[in-house]
Amino acid sequence: MSQSVDYDRFINDLSARRKVSPIRELTKLFTTAPPGTIFLAGGIPNGSTFPFSRMTVELKDGATFKLEGKKIENALQYQPTPGYPPLVEQLQKFQTQVHGLDSTFWQKNSLLVSTGSQDALCKALEMSLSEGDPILVQEPIYPGTSAIIRPLNANMVPIGQDEHGIVPSALRSALSNYGSPEKVSSMKKDVPKLLYLNSTGANPTGATIPAERKKEIYDIACEFNLVILEDDPYYFLHFEEIDPVSFLSMDRDSRVLRFDSFSKILSSGLRVGFVTGPKELVSRIELHTQASTMHTSALSQAIVSSLLDEWGSEKLLQHFKMIQQFYKGKRDCMLASANKHLKGLAEWSVPRAGMFLWIKVPGIADTKKLITEGGIEHGVILVPGKDFLAYDDAQSQYFRASYTVASPEDIDKGFARLANLIKAEIA
């Protein structure tokens, strides 16, 4: 049974003070007004002064598409803050198809295109967190997220993970420290309101939360009145036959803010992501965007939109399958080298998605010095586990290795060097 969510609980005083930009609202009118409308309102530059007339994009399969005429005009001009309208419509259909959303979903939810998913995540956290607020986070945690939270002076409450992601019993235990579900659900301050996690191929562990566990976590979120921040840039980088079930797909209460990105699947340089979730919260992210970047690059959005038009959903999904097979092969190369060089020295779980192998060295209390000094000196660069912890004073026996770019030969050579480093350290 669904329950009503009071979104005021998740909007801090700063965000509540944000007001609609009348100029940004005029841009919506400019892009949607019927033909014949005389527009004398906005400070919009005249497109005839721009030096570009058309752009041609050639794909690796030899296909091309052009931005010309009205398309290039729109791509070079200001666009509404929620996004280039054709792309917003395409992404709503995409989310509906991929996550099996029902026909009523978009009555209560909306979508905003962002400058990469991290920009939307940053604005969501700044919308909700006040100084001293606790926030539930997976640990280890992606450092880009902790870099947003720390300056806000919010208190990260780390929730442990196993090879299947966040452990529900650990989540419930952490919440119980703040009181009963009734108490936690009703308060706006001094209790956790947000749960941050990666649901597929977590960075850095590679863990994917199974559907049954997701349901258990979602039920806990309902019980304690949490909003789930589902940061899922690796959703299409999984190595299973069937796409994972998302928190968004099971969201009966509209309490999931889902962050998606094209960075890992089309281009990291285009800087196009999108956030999907309750209208009351997405509209607050929109107000923040109105006052900062105004909107994601219209040219980047137009390129993505034209690509989606060119490919259609079938070819896009074929592209995702190609990516999955590519990274699965890269993962398997790294696992082979780990078994060859690190067996008996280190431990790891097989990642079911993502870009990383999360490796534990039981014989070393903290890998920071080994990785940052010894690794660089011996020509292998990795990330120490300490960098993924919520608090700097903790130690970590782990490090993160990425299999995305290095060749199989370089991976093998790097792990051979690493094995020698570990042996020397624990000797």
Description:
Homodimer. Belongs to the class-I pyridoxal-phosphate-dependent aminotransferase family. Residues 72-417 form the Aminotransferase class I/classII large domain. By secondary structure, the protein is of the alpha/beta class. Helix content is 40%, strand content 15%. The protein has 14 helices and 14 strands. The chain has helices at 13-16, 22-32, 70-75, 85-99, 105-108, 117-128, 143-149, 168-176, 181-186, 211-223, 279-290, 298-341, 368-377, 408-426, and strands spanning 55-58, 64-67, 109-114, 134-139, 155-162, 165-166, 194-197, 227-231, 256-261, 273-278, 347-348, 356-360, 383-384, 398-402. The protein has an 8-stranded mixed sheet with strand order 3-10-9-8-7-4-5-6, with helices on both faces. A 4-stranded antiparallel sheet has the order 11-12-14-13, covered by helices on one side. Strands 1-2 form a two-stranded antiparallel sheet. Helix 10 links the parallel strand 7 (194-197) and strand 8 (227-231). Helix 4 runs parallel beside helix 12 (298-341) and helix 12 crosses helix 14 (408-426). The radius of gyration is 23 Å and the shape is globular. The N and C termini lie far apart (59 Å). The model has no long low-confidence stretch (mean pLDDT 95).
